[in-house]
Structure to design on (89 residues):
């Protein structure tokens, strides 16, 4: 279920803040969002997969806490990220 390296590299390239950036909050949130979207598609086909559902909920909680941190530290970056990822506030 993990992202392939091409998809991951594309997301990092799109959301990085500098040339050597690969772990900033915005990059991590974008990667988590892509993983969450991929798992959501998986659950449309496999409704009884409760083991993976627990992992999905952990990812959602991690993304929520990272977005809370980003909102607290850099509101402009937070709003830009929400707009680009299509998330609601």
């Amino acid at each position: 279920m993990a992202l392939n390296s091409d998809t991951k590299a594309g997301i990092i390239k799109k959301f990085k803040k500098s040339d050597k950036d690969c772990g900033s909050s915005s990059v991590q949130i974008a990667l988590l969002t892509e993983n969450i979207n991929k798992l959501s598609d998986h659950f449309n086909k496999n409704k009884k997969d409760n083991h993976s559902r627990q992992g999905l909920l952990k990812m959602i909680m991690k993304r929520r806490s990272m977005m809370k941190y980003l909102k607290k530290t850099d509101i402009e970056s937070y709003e830009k990220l929400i707009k680009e990822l299509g998330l609601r506030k």
About this structure: Residues 50-73 form the longest helix (24 residues). The chain has four helices and no strands.
